[in-house]
Amino acid sequence: MSHARKRKQEFDAGFEVSKRLSVARQELVDIAKKISRLQDLMGIDSPASLSVHGEGDTSLLETEGEFEAQRRPKEVKLMGKFLQGFVEALKDKWLAEQKNQLESESLSVNVDSHVAPSSSTQPPPVPIFPPRPKDGTPQKIRNWRKECKQIQEEYEALLGSDSDKSYPTLRALEDQGTTNAVQDWKSKQAVLAAARSIVSVTPVLADGKTGLPCSGFILHRYEHAGVIFSVIVTCSAVVCTAGRKLNPPPKLYVGLPDKETVLQAHLFCFNDHFDIALLLLPFDLSLDIPCLGCCPDYNQEVFVLGRDKDASLRVEHGVISWTEESNYMGRDYYMFLDGEVPEGGTGGPVIDHDGVFRGMAFKLSPMPAVLSISTIMSCSAMFMHFGRVAWPKPGWNLRAVASVDVDILESLSVHNIKNGYIVEEVHDGTPAEISGICRGDVIVSINGHKELTSLPELEDYLLLLGWKYLIGSVTTTNLEIVKLLIVSHPVESVVGRSDFAD
């Protein structure tokens, strides 16, 4: 048995004995005072004195003289004898009880093997550390710190087995990754503020099995027919696989940050191309509407937040990588994370160091992916207004000029190209091929927009065209594309007519 555990058990047992003995002594003193007052009221001249002694002392109430009964009425004499007999009987009973208790407690304190764990709901006493050396020599300071560390380790080991787990300050760390990811106070404040908007999302399939546990976060609230709905965005993997909605659809359970409240959500709509789903909860939940920002920057440090199956917060730290995969799962607009996604973090937010939501994380191989928050907001707006998402689909795979190697950038700089998109692939029979766009071309503007520099920005622009398509009820849209042919150096402007996908 460790020294800290033994000291705690002796302390608990000794403290309990001392407390009971103190209470019992006080009760005896109160009884003695009452007896004295009764004797005064009855006119009994009794020099009885009450003294509280240790165990086994039977002289708690001693009569140092005899009543002068001959000068008192007979009723007074009888009352005095009755009162004295009553006190003697009470005294003997109390002494017997205290003797048994003291023997039992003494045995518990002295025999370690018979010590039962304390049933008190209070936390164990804090450890007692030796005082810091006064002379402060380096060697003595090191020895002092070593001794303190040893005491602290013994105390933590004691808490790990015997502490009341309901005390959050006494619980052991649940996730070392979260601890390592969030170190400074500003980051902790940002993470905790964002956590009040994050939920866990658990699909339960028809056979009772649990699907992929994901996270989600509240986007906004809206009122319909007098009912306030909370809109939760999460990963579409909770309701579909390989682009198809699960049949029968799973039940979706949302766990709130309090780790106690679990509510069944309703699927509003989803889009497998953008990997998002909107869930509705007919409640005004105690969730904070997050601060929504814009697309994250390349090489930006971010936090990835999520909640595990028990709705506990999980956090990882990473950097938005310059990596671009033009045809990764058919999603040019993905950004990639140099880091990890925490347990249950798919569908959870990616935030900056100010706590601003910049995207949604997906746990993929070989690198986690990030969907820009601006893309999520565009899709959500079309979902809420039209029940679907639309965007033109030219039929190409692109790479941003800014993501290529320096030697390629130097070659492009000869043609005064600083941004734009390099065509890496053109699909057969698509509007891009019909318009004459070829592999290796550099697109320098689309519909006159030259400020587009990243693939997420291009995707947001295509979604904007989709919004106009849904509003205007047009079937096609024209894309005026200015391209540069590197080999022959001419700049050409082509107009492609693209259908919309949804």
TrEMBL record:
Residues 122-131 have a biased composition (Pro residues). This is PDZ domain-containing protein. One of its GO terms (molecular function) is serine-type endopeptidase activity. Belongs to the peptidase S1C family. One of its GO terms (biological process) is proteolysis. It comes from the Eukaryota. Residues 110-121 have a biased composition (Polar residues). Pfam families: PDZ_6 (PF17820), Trypsin_2 (PF13365). Residues 110-139 are annotated as: Disordered. Residues 420-455 form the PDZ domain.
